[in-house]
Amino acid sequence: MKDKRQGEGENDDETTRRQFLQLGASVVAGGSLASCAPEGLKSIAVNDKQKSFKRTTPSRVVLEKTTYEELLPVLEKYWQELKPEIKGKKIFLKINLVYWKPDRPLCTDPRFIDAVLTLLSKNGAAEIKIGDGPALSRDTERLVEKSGIAAVLKKHQIQFVDLNIDDLTEVENRLKFTKEDAFALPKSITNSDFVISLPKLKTHHWALMTASMKNLFGCLPGRKYGWPKNVLHTNGIDESILDLVGCIQPHFAIVDGVEAMEGDGPLNGTGLDYGALIMGDDVVAVDRLCANCMKLPVVNIPYLVAAGKCIGNADFGQIEVLGKSPSSMQRQFQLPPTYYPDGRPRDLKTLMTSSNGGLT
Predict the structure, then answer these.
(1) What confidence score (pLDDT) does residue 219 get?
(2) For residue 290, which of 89, 96, 266, 301 sits 20 to 30 Å off, Cα-Cα?
(3) What is the mean pLDDT of residues 286-294?
(4) How far apart are CA 235 and CA 35, in angstroms?
(5) Residue 31 scores a pLDDT above 90
(6) CA distance 346 to 343
(7) Nearest-angstrom CA–CA distance, 220 and 317
């Protein structure tokens, strides 16, 4: 599985840093700064055709306090409450495997994955596949092993799918927030009956937050869209997120907020013992609740505002929260250095001249 184009002796951290700086520099040089970095109060126009795809029913989202050791019974309790029908279906779990560092919670935790796999098996899933298309490393096998996920998959006798090299099929871009007419999606996803987004809850230096919607970036193959998925960044992070959700149409989201990340996420932030499980069948409502709990200014998450108009529910008047009240779980997550303390995004061009590029 290892790509021989990656230098055997190359320092992974320095490689990651260089990739982000090169991407940022190319965007600034190309005059496409607005499409790469959030602009503060940026508004994404949503037309009537796009609005026609919006969910028309209220959403139910779970917010519960838990630990990894107590997770399975909590999952089982609320799974029965929400009643997603998966018996006899082919399930795909899209985890977050962006990178691996031993001292930071970058990926969906193996204990979290273990509990979800047990839950799905108990509820009659006919087939379960799990995968991601890491954006910063072509040695996916190493990430799966180092993260501890390989041992969990061996326990459940499930093989990891590297979405960067999976067979592809063209899927129409029905929302068209970007210029792409279609996306080449892995067949492991398109051939599934039920897609679940299984992200790690983190702050993000360009998108402000990583949760169930941003997690779908890893569905696109690097062999077609580049590392680190450059096409999505230059087309606009917010717009690309919206189009991917519209194409993939995930059925469910289960967010690993037990150990979250704050600060300079998604790679160099600080681990946070947050102890939260957030899940539901509306990824927009799930992410809206995540932002609320993290005390993030939703106005500076443009894709989430737009998604509430054309995909799912972002208005709490349309969202029923099961479990803990959002106010009881609110905690101010430290923002990335790309944002001011009040949540306004800083200028990317200025940050590019700082000592660390502001991006790593």
Answers:
(1) 95
(2) 89
(3) 98
(4) 6
(5) no
(6) 9
(7) 33
Q: How buried is residue 98: exposed, middle or buried, by Cβ count under 10 Å (0-12/13-18/19+)?
A: buried
In sign, the C-alpha dihedral spanning 58, 59, 65, 66 is positive
Rounded to whole angstroms, how far apart are CA atoms 334 and 346? 15
Rounded-to-integer distance, Cα 37 and Cα 209, Å: 13
Nearest to 252 by CA among 68, 153, 119: 119
Tell me how far apart the alpha carbons of residues 19 and 360 are, in angstroms, rounded to a whole number.
9
pTM over 0.85: yes
Q: Is the pLDDT of residue 223 over 90?
A: no
Question: Using an 8 Å Cβ cutoff, are 2 and 141 in contact?
Answer: yes
Question: CA 226 to CA 168: how far, in whole Å?
Answer: 15
- Both tokens of 232, joined, read 């999505």
Token couple for 292: 């609320």
The H-or-E segment that residue 201 falls in is strand 200-204
Domains and CATH numbers, the chain: 46-351 (3.40.50.11440)
Tokens representing 189? Answer: 């996803």
Q: Which amino acid is at 23?
A: L
DSSP run (H or E) holding 252: strand 252-262
Which residues of the chain form beta strands (DSSP E)? 59-65, 90-95, 127-132, 160-162, 168-172, 182-186, 194-198, 200-204, 208-210, 252-262, 270-280, 319-323
* Residue (of 239, 252, 189, 253) closest to 218 by Cα position: 189
Within 8 A by CB and 6+ apart from 330, the residues are 292, 293, 295
- Neighbour count for residue 113 (Cβ, 10 Å): 24
The residue type of 274 is Y
Residue whose tokens read 């969910």: 55
Q: What span, in angstroms and rounded, lies between the C-alpha atoms of 112 and 110?
A: 5
